[in-house]
Amino acid sequence: MIAILDYGIGNLKSIYNMFKKVGIESVITSDIEEIKKADKYLLPGVGSFDHGINGLKKAAFFETLEKEVLQNKKPILGICLGMQLLTNSSEEGKEKGLGWIDAQTVKFDLEDKNLSIPHMGWNKTNPSNIKDIYHNLEENRFYFVHSYHVVCNDEKNILATATYGKKFTCSIYKDNIYGVQFHPEKSHKFGMQLFKNFGEM
């Protein structure tokens, strides 16, 4: 069972409905006991970095989540802002991130001034290592809405890249911790397959 973490941020119902469509059991929750029982976690997020990280760290379940992910090695998938919260910090705010993956979140700096920020719409992704969440995808195409992107300090943590003016990291991982910059819940059959892959890992 996947616990969709409810800390007041994100498209929780859309994510729940996508898991339901692909036959993966999930629950939207902030309950500590449910979080202990869960096999995996989905960390959603929309909005600003500081608001997100403060909300997550102040959640009653945060210490439980940290133990389950870092000590018990249960898989977690962060999406959009949820992925950025996995990093050390963000240029968008002053607060420290979770630091679960050694990376920084930085603002797009594009030479092509005809490209607008935020980067919004469908884009092809290029997995560096076809495994786990990218299995059985007929096309790696997903829906993005973001002004910031992640820069990993260790290339081994890069799971996929995309191009918008320049190549950027759009998916990261380390051991049991995964992040995607795009919105699987808005990516139709491609997002459904990615959620299915995560649920069946």
Topology record:
Elements lengths: L1 E4 L6 H10 L4 E4 L2 H6 L2 E4 L5 H10 L3 H10 L4 E4 L1 H4 L4 E2 L12 E5 L11 E9 L13 E6 L1 E5 L5 E7 L1 E9 L2 E4 L7 H13 L1
Parallel strand pairs: 1-2, 1-3, 3-4, 4-12, 5-6
Antiparallel strand pairs: 6-9, 7-8, 7-10, 10-11, 11-12
Protein name: Imidazole glycerol phosphate synthase subunit HisH
Subunit structure: Heterodimer of HisH and HisF.
GO molecular function, one term: glutaminase activity
Textual characterization of the structure:
This is Imidazole glycerol phosphate synthase subunit HisH. It is found in: Cytoplasm. There is one protein chain. The protein has helices spanning 12-21, 32-37, 49-58, 62-71, 81-84, 188-200, and strands spanning 2-5, 26-29, 40-43, 76-79, 89-90, 103-107, 119-127, 141-146, 148-152, 158-164, 166-174, 177-180. It is α/β, with parallel strands linked by helices and 201 residues long. It has one domain (2-200): 3-Layer(aba) Sandwich (Rossmann fold), CATH 3.40.50. The strands form two sheets. Strands 2-1-3-4-12-11-10-7-8 form a nine-stranded mixed beta sheet. A three-stranded mixed beta sheet has the order 5-6-9, with no helix packed on it. A hairpin with a 1-residue loop joins strand 10 and strand 11 (166-174). It is globular and about 50 Å long.
